[in-house]
């Protein structure tokens, strides 16, 4: 009974948020992020440790400043999900600019390699634009949530304009079919999902457990691999989604080298806007050769 009440209360809160003026919503998100940065928590400790590991050249004051900036932007991105999940097409189209170096309407098989900036959910907006722009639909893996109720709801919301969310657990064949049909396939491999189908390659000069899905799928399907970076607009008005030309000489016969190359690109992007990366994730949780977790 209480669980049902809390579930539907959560949906009601999202509907309330989406009804707010956009500037009010963003200000609320910044405020929540500011408060979160002040509260001692496991996630705050994870952010602190990640920043210390990746930016050893920063002093304590610089790390603390970056940590607070990150929480501020994370708070904004969290409340903006109310629009991404429940907003109408007009709201979504006003929320994102798409800059692409490839013709997205040519329906060539492509894997769009996303990364975990705080605005990653903004890439889902592409599915709302696809029909009007003449683009194929978007497909991508999703990670199951602990709550079956919200797991189902969020998949429904993400797919409401024709997108296709594929359960990450055991559905690679479905993703291969989508690639061969010409769908946009969005994959964000910069995450530690365990040791299966992954390898340790450098990320900020640290051996980091990274999934190898992109290299393997590109080799199986012959799909082009393009980077897709979704960042926050600096004027507090939505997102910019930038899609690159296909990567040259990708994939190769060396899965580890391909995966390391992607990590290098991710690192370059993060250094341009370090506060926007998703530092709350335990990126270095699994370690090689039984090395202790830094968390």
Automatic annotation (TrEMBL):
<keyword id="KW-0997">Cell inner membrane</keyword>
<dbReference type="Pfam" id="PF03279">
    <property type="entry name" value="Lip_A_acyltrans"/>
</dbReference>
<dbReference type="GO" id="GO:0016746">
    <property type="term" value="F:acyltransferase activity"/>
</dbReference>
<keyword id="KW-0472">Membrane</keyword>
<dbReference type="GO" id="GO:0009247">
    <property type="term" value="P:glycolipid biosynthetic process"/>
</dbReference>
<keyword id="KW-1003">Cell membrane</keyword>
<dbReference type="InterPro" id="IPR004960">
    <property type="entry name" value="LipA_acyltrans"/>
</dbReference>
<keyword id="KW-0808">Transferase</keyword>
<dbReference type="GO" id="GO:0005886">
    <property type="term" value="C:plasma membrane"/>
</dbReference>
<keyword id="KW-0012">Acyltransferase</keyword>
<protein>
    <submittedName>
        <fullName>Lipid A biosynthesis acyltransferase</fullName>
    </submittedName>
</protein>
